[in-house]
Write a structure and sequence with these properties.
There is one protein chain. The protein is of the alpha+beta class. It has a domain of 120 residues: 2-Layer Sandwich (Phosphorylase Kinase, domain 1). It is built from 11 helices and 10 strands. A hairpin with a 7-residue loop joins strand 8 and strand 9.
């Protein structure tokens, strides 16, 4: 889960730290008073939301209300990562489409008062379910089935949107996405690896030898999973916001399906898959669909050919391994505020094993 997903959950469940580095209230407040046209923002409180492994995200509050501020990490970041304008653009474009997103409020460029680009969006109240479902929420198998169904259907709806119809026809090159992704994440591995890992190189090479033919071009979220959504506070089965669009682009929609499956846990996962979990196995509870059911429902709704879904899932493990290595490198360099980064390095090799496992037809 990124920092911003924690910013949208039930306020009684949030873990706010008294950290304002990177969004100091004496700088943020006067600027928000100007751009939001309300002097009350001058006397605001700022709190870093803990748990973020990507961009830095803060809840900013005053008598005028609450907003969420997103900015890049401190210090060095990997090339092409943490593009604030890109996130702002796709969320703005999707507003009103039926794919639920927070309303965007303001975008600042690199010459901003913070010295980096950042943006503001509304805070959507609901449940962000990372470690467990809230007490009294999704208690029955039927309610958990509804949550899983909403997650699949929302992804399918995103992939059905015509990019040109929402002004995103130039949001990416579309064709050839997975080949470019393999090159990009291979380069980022070289930029951040702490030591050689031949098994990761072998997984990359095996993926490169069998890239599936891309059958469609769609808006791709890039990190779609349960804890990057906000669930309705009282109605399980309704998603009120999809968050974390920093890796969104145009391309192969099955990239999102593969990622969802890589994050997903189910009863009966073997030791390799259990060892590669980067989030708690919330979805292993009775009622949540199994991976096979996710694939079947997605295919029924979209009409897409999902015969090569194992390749996309293996790629997701490869990408996650590289992302975790990048997190570990940034944490070691002091560019990550908050806690929760200690296990990033340790999970790299288990993720690589899972990728090989899935390509071999297991799991």
């Amino acid at each position: 889960m990124s920092a911003r997903t924690a910013a949208f959950g039930d306020p009684t469940a949030q873990r706010l730290q008294p950290i304002v580095t990177g969004a100091e209230p004496e700088i943020v407040g006067p600027h928000l008073a100007e751009v939001l046209h309300d002097a009350r923002w001058r006397e605001c409180g700022v709190a870093l939301i803990s748990g973020g492994k990507s961009n830095l995200t803060y809840r900013v509050a005053c008598d005028a209300g609450e907003v969420v501020l997103c900015r890049p990490p401190l210090g060095h970041v990997l090339p092409t990562a943490h593009d604030m304008a890109r996130e702002f653009r796709v969320q703005s474009a999707l507003l009103g489409t039926g794919v639920p997103v927070p309303r965007t409020l303001y975008l600042a460029d690199a010459g901003s008062v913070l010295g980096v680009p950042f943006y503001l969006m509304e805070r959507v109240v609901g449940h962000v379910c990372r470690n467990q479902l809230p007490a009294g929420y999704g208690e029955t198998a039927a309610e958990r089935e509804a949550i899983g169904g909403a997650l699949i259907d929302t992804l399918a709806h995103l992939h059905a949107i015509d990019p040109a119809a929402v002004g995103l026809e130039d949001f990416g090159r579309g064709a050839g996405l997975m080949e470019r992704q393999l090159r990009r994440w291979s380069q980022q591995w070289e930029s951040s690896k702490a030591a050689d890992l031949p098994a990761l190189d072998a997984l990359r090479d095996e993926l490169a030898r069998a890239v599936p033919r891309q059958a469609a071009v769609a808006i791709v979220h890039g990190d779609y999973r349960l804890d990057n959504t906000v669930l309705h506070p009282t109605r399980p089965g309704q998603i009120v916001a999809v968050l974390d669009w920093e890796m969104s682009t145009l391309g192969d929609p099955l990239a999102d399906l593969g990622a969802l499956l890589a994050y997903w846990s189910e009863t009966g996962d073997d030791d390799v898959l259990a060892g590669a979990r980067i989030i708690p196995p919330v979805t292993a509870a009775a009622g949540f669909p199994a991976r096979g059911e996710i694939v079947r429902r997605y295919a029924e709704v979209t009409g897409f050919d999902v015969a090569d879904v194992a390749w996309y899932r293996a790629f997701a493990y490869f990408k996650l391994a590289v992302v975790c290595q990048g997190v570990a490198a940034r944490a070691a360099g002091g560019a990550m505020l908050g806690s929760g980064f200690e296990d990033a390095q340790a999970i790299v090799e288990p993720l690589v094993r899972a990728g090989h496992h899935v390509l071999a037809g297991a799991g």
